[in-house]
Amino acid sequence: MFKPVVWILCLAPFALLIYDGFTDNLTANPIEKITNHTGIWTLRLIVAGLAITPLRWLTGLNQLVNYRRLVGLFAFFYGCLHFTTFFFFDHQFDFAGMWQDVVKRPYITAGFVAFVLMIPLAVTSTTGWIRRMGGKKWNLLHKLIYITALAAVLHYFWKVKLDATYPVYYGLGVAALLGFRAWRNVARKKASEV
Ligand code: HEM
């Protein structure tokens, strides 16, 4: 029911970037601005996607699950824009040069891991794939998002050189969301043993 709202909210940062481009508001360093804007929105949507299930548990609003795939796919969309900006502007689509960066610079390594792990999740996000894989295997594969989230926070943390306040906030957010899931799983297992 709220899908159009989710579409608008998720597309707004992209629209803002286009608007800034047309109104000459991409700062003195447009590439940095585009990379940072798409990077932070990738992270925000990863966190938003991770928050959906705990929010559903806490509120009992089961219909929230209907928005998880959309939010996840938008995270991937911004991740693609972010990576493509880097690959094109920093490396002119030269794979070898880009790979050198991935291998040599730890923050790029972490970002690359985070992004690459999102690819199988995006590919298998359709109902056809859930059917083909079976719920159990599909759920297991989609746990990769936890590694993506942790690698993304590490990427952000290593990237900012002076003030790590925001990466730490995101790190605490991700830790709280993953910790809550782990705690609930253990509690449920214990309850089923009794
Ligand atoms: C899930 C994947 C990723 C996420 C969530 C992510 C997130 C971020 C964030 C939050 C920032 C900093 C934004 C800011 O300071 O305001 C950033 C910067 C950056 N990211 Fe990523 N990133 C990801 C993947 C990648 C990949 C795959 C690459 C390249 C291989 C990459 C390259 C960069 C670069 C070069 C910057 C610095 C831009 C600059 O200062 O000019 N990122 N990213």
Task: Describe the structure in brief.
The protein has 194 residues and is mainly α. The protein has helices spanning 3-22, 30-59, 68-90, 95-104, 106-123, 127-133, 135-141, 144-159, 165-193. It is globular.
Structural overview:
With 194 residues, the protein is an all-alpha fold. It has nine helices and no strands. The chain has helices spanning 3-22, 30-59, 68-90, 95-104, 106-123, 127-133, 135-141, 144-159, 165-193. It is globular. The mean pLDDT is 97. The site of protoporphyrin IX containing FE (HEM) has 25 residues, from helix 2, helix 3, helix 5 and helix 8.
Q: Could you spell the SSE succession in H and E letters?
A: HHHHHHHHH
The radius of gyration is 18 Å
Total count of helical runs of at least 4 residues? 9
- Give the helix level as a range of percent: over 70%
First-residue to last-residue Cα separation: 40 Å
